[in-house]
């Protein structure tokens, strides 16, 4: 029985919205993790921002940022991302659900993030994450793990998937607590 649910789909399919809705449904449980959202300037995307589940924000990437890791037009602040990750108690055994949005090319530049993902998936604590659909290499290896349930979201199925995924996550959590 897998304790890990990965949500994939094309850019803009609705992955972040869906994982947020799932997390919000378990507001009475102990959740840790983060979302990634766009930074807009006059309607144009100029970067990405991390938002922890307890509401702290940090820039992940921006256009024109000098970095050893660039993805498209964006330079990733790998050091800042790693400091942010260090402040999130992913391995707290009291946690009911780990939420990671997303396992993507920008995030994958961070060695610490790769460790956080592997430890989260290896741990008995249930984990839900969004993951890039086309990325290869180490990200493809995560998608292909046989201890994850991989679900593809589209504009057509994103609303009907929500109740099914909620039931799946609820079951993962009750298995973990033995309840
Ligand atoms: N169920 C939904 N109903 C209506 N609009 C939605 C729904 N899900 C997502 N959207 C809208 O679609 C857009 C893309 O959604 P979202 O950011 O969740 O997609 P994503 O797959 O995470 O994108 P990316 O690949 O860029 O991270 C947003 O404007 C969002 O408000």
TrEMBL record:
Residues 1-154 form the AAA+ ATPase domain. Pfam families: NTPase_1. InterPro entries: AAA+_ATPase (IPR003593), Nuc-triphosphatase_THEP1 (IPR004948), P-loop_NTPase (IPR027417). Has nucleotide phosphatase activity towards ATP, GTP, CTP, TTP and UTP. May hydrolyze nucleoside diphosphates with lower efficiency. Its EC number is 3.6.1.15. The keyword ATP-binding applies. It is an enzyme of class 3 (hydrolase). It catalyses: a ribonucleoside 5'-triphosphate + H2O = a ribonucleoside 5'-diphosphate + phosphate + H(+). Signal peptide: none annotated. The lineage of its organism: Archaea, Methanobacteriati, Methanobacteriota, Stenosarchaea group, Methanomicrobia. It comes from the Archaea. ATP binds at residues 9-16, 97-104. Keywords: ATP-binding, Hydrolase, Nucleotide-binding. SMART domains: AAA (SM00382). Belongs to the THEP1 NTPase family. The keyword ATP-binding applies. This is Nucleoside-triphosphatase FGU65_09010.
């Amino acid at each position: 029985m897998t304790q890990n649910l990965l949500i994939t789909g094309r850019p803009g399919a609705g992955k972040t919205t869906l994982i947020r809705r799932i997390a919000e449904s378990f507001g009475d449980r102990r959740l840790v993790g983060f979302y990634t959202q766009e930074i807009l300037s006059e309607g144009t995307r100029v970067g990405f921002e991390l938002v922890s589940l307890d509401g702290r924000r940090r820039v992940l990437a921006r256009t024109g940022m000098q970095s050893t890791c660039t993805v498209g037009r964006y330079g990733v602040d790998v050091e800042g991302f790693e400091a942010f990750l260090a402040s999130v108690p992913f391995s707290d055994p009291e946690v009911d659900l780990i939420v990671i949005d997303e396992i993507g090319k920008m995030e994958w530049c961070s060695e610490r993030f790769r460790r956080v993902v592997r430890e989260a998936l290896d741990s008995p604590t249930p984990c839900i994450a969004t993951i890039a659909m086309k990325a290869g290499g180490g990200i493809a290896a995560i998608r292909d793990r046989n201890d994850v349930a991989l679900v593809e979201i589209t504009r057509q199925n994103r609303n009907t998937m929500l109740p099914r995924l909620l039931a799946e996550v609820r079951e993962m959590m009750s298995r973990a607590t033995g309840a």
